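Bug: token stream looks shifted between consecutive jobs. Job 1:
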Amino acid sequence: MTAKDACHAGRTYFLLLNNMDHDHPLNVSKSTAPITRDQFMAFFRSGTFYEHMSDDDCREIFATVLKGGSDLTAKFLNELLEDYSVEDVIVVNTKTLDWR
């Protein structure tokens, strides 16, 4: 099952945390119930998230977390580029020729 399939099936949180170290407090590998949204968000916002996720894991989550194409606007993508200090790329809306 791909991460995108899991997301659509509503089991993303369970799959993400099911693959972490056995000693981690949010490890749910022995549980059959998915963790709650609050548990996932607490994990995601903690430094622990970055310690347990590989670069590939982070790219996979990033590539599949948005719900649809309407989430991808020129403004959003340009803000993202700015947040990551990417200075040599700009996204332009081809219908309005606006980058904001």
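Job 2, same session, no restart:
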Amino acid sequence: MEQILIALLAVCALNAVSSHRLCKFDSDCDNLGDLICMKSGCDHGVCGCSRGKAARFYGSEKNFLCVDIKKIGESCSTDGLGPLGVCGASNSYCNSETNRCDCNSGYVSVWGGERCANSNPEVGPSGTCSSSFDGGSCNNFGGSSTCQSGSSPYSSYGYGNGFLSMYPSCSCPQGYRTNLRNDVSLSLGFHGKKYPTCEPILHDELCIVDADCLSPTMVCRNNKCACDNTTHVPDYSKMNCGVAVGKDIDCGAVSDEVCDGSSGLVCLHGTGFCDINPNMTISKCRCGPTHTESGSSCTEIGTGGTCYGDMNCKAISKNAICVDGACQDGAMTVVFNMALLCLTLAVTLQM
């Protein structure tokens, strides 16, 4: 489970806008035009465009150019090459009459032009819902959310979002909670974009009852998801608990054993997370991408710590990012964007 999670994160972080040429330095991408070396959590990556831009091939002389990804209403190039920008919102196109991004027929602009949806307003988890404008349905953002009455604090496990709410809210299923996270994909993602989603409640996160903790190996203790067996530890994903396995010890063969995630360990093939040609017959507990080797232990990368890419910074928060080789906490940005999202929903409801 841990190996699959790490692999998916690595694939997502190096997605689509790359040329799939491996690199260690920007200079390794020089003959590809504008492309630079984009890294995820290791000292190697692939040649691609930075977040907020898309790669377009301009021929043998110019090679690749990185052009701006545009929102609905912004200027764009109808030829698809994008000197004025390319439309990045889902279900959008560049209108040849206005040279501006527009939504396809049957869709409307939402989220400040970052998305084209087939309903307006498009309601995600924690958003206010009402049968008067959306039939009581809620959009699925990574986990189906349903419109729950605000009058009942435990209405169909809606208390996670609608507890004592004055208005009905879209609530994530039990065992999940609303999160506002940044887009980990480098393709078709607006710079700094955040979006609401339903994500599993993890070890040491807020809970009310045992059922809020999805794993059968966890219970709700003192309003935090904890290992049911107090001698057990969480794994790296914080979604399961088991008997702790230490650093550089074989892993994956015994079902109730987990690499000690609280110590930054994850079960990996080969020599570690950054092994690009791992020996698949070897699985040992190694330091995960959010930690560095420190003798016989792993040291968590904190704010200001050295990083190659965003993945190295996720121990700080899910929205922490790597800027100029140092981790920065994106929490304040998330708070601001959450306030902006709430304001946008409030204004939309009054219109």
